[in-house]
């Protein structure tokens, strides 16, 4: 995947991000064909950018409890 321009990313806090422990994840889903995920506490550290279909599959797995420990 080539370098993705995140300058137009519209970040929003993930619904399930922690409210009290500072562990917040932000998601930008307004970019063409990709989703970007970053740590809201340290946004300067970059973001993980993945194909939108891959991110959708990941979310389905999370909702199904496949990553619960």
TrEMBL record:
Stored Pfam families: DUF397 (PF04149)
Reading the lineage from the top rank, the first entry is Bacteria
Location of the DUF397 domain: 9-63
Q: What is this protein called?
A: DUF397 domain-containing protein
Q: What is the lineage of its organism?
A: Bacteria, Bacillati, Actinomycetota, Actinomycetes, Propionibacteriales
């Amino acid at each position: 995947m080539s370098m993705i321009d995140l300058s137009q990313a519209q970040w929003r806090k993930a619904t399930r991000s922690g409210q009290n422990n500072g562990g917040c994840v932000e998601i930008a889903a307004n970019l063409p064909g990709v989703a970007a995920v970053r740590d809201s506490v340290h946004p300067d550290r970059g973001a993980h950018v993945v194909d939108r279909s891959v991110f959708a599959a990941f979310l389905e797995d999370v909702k199904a409890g496949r990553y619960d420990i």
